[in-house]
Amino acid sequence: MTLIEALTAHRLVAVIRGTDPAACVRTAAVLVDNGISLLEVSLTSTDALKVIERVAASGVQVGAGTVLTAADARDARDAGASFTVTPALGEGVTASVELGLPVLAGALTPSEVLAAHRAGATAVKIFPASSLGPGHITALRAPFPDIPLVPVGGIGADDVRRYLAAGALAVGVGSPLTGDAPDGGDPVDLARRVRAFVDQAVRP
């Protein structure tokens, strides 16, 4: 399944960022078991590449997040990441495209959205989404109806439908979803949160 197909089908990307590698892998398993199967592991996590390797080996579609440099993109590919995610435009985007990795490129303004698209981004990550809200997605969709937009940053379960209704292809969710699970927190609490997010992402 291509990244666009996965975003369209799943509508949620879970962002894993943590200090406990084993807990990060466990978090991935809980996410998948409860209905979120498109995952991103931030390279700012402890031993992130090893986490990506383990998650990818389980057959889950996993990307590498916070890809800033060409080395980050190469390392992500070598670890088994099937796509990359960047917080902004730059070397991480261009290197991913050159390596043939689908990339969710970070942008916020109309100029950045257009630049990300022209740089070869598969979809554009609108970050930080919560700073401007769902109305920003609606506004961006007017001049860019054919550019897939994925808002990320500060999005809670109650916000998911509002962003999707505003025209987002999918929504990226981090700490409001994963909480302290990637640092060793309770997986039962995580499973409860996952179900709440999945319920909100179901197409009416």
Largest sheet: 8 strands, parallel
Low-confidence stretches: none
- Gyration radius over CA: 15 Å
Distance between the termini: 23 Å
The helical percent reads: 40-55%
Structural class: alpha/beta
The CATH architecture is: Alpha-Beta Barrel
CATH fold group: TIM Barrel
CATH superfamily annotation: Aldolase class I
What's the mean pLDDT score?
97
What descriptors fit this protein?
single chain; 204 residues; alpha/beta; TIM Barrel; 8-stranded parallel β-sheet; 8 strands; 45% helix; 16% strand
Can you describe what's shown?
The chain is of the alpha/beta class and 204 residues long. The chain has one domain (3-201): Alpha-Beta Barrel (TIM Barrel), CATH 3.20.20. 45% of the residues lie in helices and 16% in strands. The chain contains ten helices and eight strands. The protein has helices at 3-10, 21-33, 48-57, 70-79, 91-99, 110-118, 134-141, 160-165, 175-178, 187-201, and strands at 12-16, 38-42, 61-65, 83-85, 103-107, 123-126, 149-151, 171-173. The protein has an eight-stranded parallel sheet with strand order 7-6-5-4-3-2-1-8, sandwiched between helices. Strand 4 (83-85), helix 5 and strand 5 form a beta-alpha-beta unit. Helix 2 (21-33) packs parallel to helix 3 (48-57) and helix 2 (21-33) crosses helix 10 (187-201). The longest helix is centred in the last third of the chain and has 15 residues, at 187-201. It is globular and about 45 Å long. The mean pLDDT is 97.
